[in-house]
Amino acid sequence: MAVQQTRALNRQRRILDAALRVFSRRAYRDASVDEVAGEARTSKGGVYFHFPNKEAIFLALLDRTAAHLREKIESATATFDDPVAKADAALLTVLRTFSKHRALARLFMVEALGAGREFHRRMAEIRSEFAALIQHHLDIAIKERIIAGIDTEIASRAWFGALNEVITHWVLSGEPDRIEDAYDALRPLLMRSVGATTLAAKTAANSSTRPGATRARRPHQAQKRTP
User: For 34, 40, 47, 64, which has the most beta carbons within 10 A of its beta carbon?
Assistant: First the structure.
C-alpha cells in the first residue's frame, strides 16, 4: 500500500510539473490535457485518475505554489524579531520568489484571467491568507507600541495589493530589469503608510540576502510611537 501511494504521489507531482511547463508555454486557455499527458509521459487516463479536468490541474498548481510560498515566508520571517521587519520580509519573499520564476508569475497573474470562477475564488482566498499574515505582524507592532494604532486589515490588503501590482507590471512590461529595484522604491511608501520607521525594514532586506546575517534588532524605545 505504501509503495502504491508513493508511486501515485510521484505521478501526481510529475503531472503538475509537466502542466506548469505546458501552461507556461501555451497559456492556460490554449493548453490541453492531452499536451499535459504527453509532457508528463503518461496516458490521458492517468492524468484523469488524479485530476478530473484541466481546471483541477491548474488549481492544484496554484495550491502547491501557495504552500511553497508559505514555507519560504515562514523561514524568512523567523530570522527577525521586529514585527515590521517580519511583514517586510514576507512581502520581499513573495517578490523574490516570482523574480526567479517569471513564467510562474505570468501564468498566475496574467494568463490565468480566463481560468474560471473557481480559480478566481481560490486566488482571492490565498490573497486574503497572505494579507492576514501581514496583518498579524502589524497587529503585534501596535501591541508592542512600535507603530500607532491603525486599521491593520486595510493596511495589510493595501500592502499586498501594491506588491501584486508591482509584480504584474514587471511581468507585462519587463520594467524594471530587477524587480527588487521597484520594491526599494515601494518600501518607504509602505512604511510611511503605517507610521513606521524604515530602519527595521531596510535591515530585513539587507539581512535576508546575506547568509548568516544577524537578526534584526527592535527599534530603540525612542523610535517607538507613544499611544
Answer: 47
Burial 36-58 (b: 16+ CB within 10 A, else e): bbebbebeeebbeebbeebeebb
How far apart CA 182 and CA 167 sit, in angstroms, is: 9
What CATH number was assigned to the domain covering residues 59-223?
1.10.357.10
**If residue 16 lies in a helix (H) or strand (E), which one and from where to where?**
helix 2-26
Residue 61 amino acid letter: L
Of 23, 35, 182, whose CA–CA distance to 110 is shortest?
23
Answer whether 0.85 is exceeded by the pTM. no
The domain segmentation of the chain, as residue ranges, is 1-52, 59-223
What is the Cα–Cα distance from 43 to 187, expressed in whole angstroms? 48
Question: At residue 214, what is the residue type?
Answer: T
CATH number of the domain located at residue range(s) 1-52 in this protein: 1.10.10.60
Q: Give the mean pLDDT per block of 10 residues along the chain (227 residues).
A: 78 94 87 95 94 93 93 95 94 92 86 80 92 96 94 96 93 89 91 75 46 44 42
Crossing angle (nearest 10°) for helices 33-40 and 54-77: 60
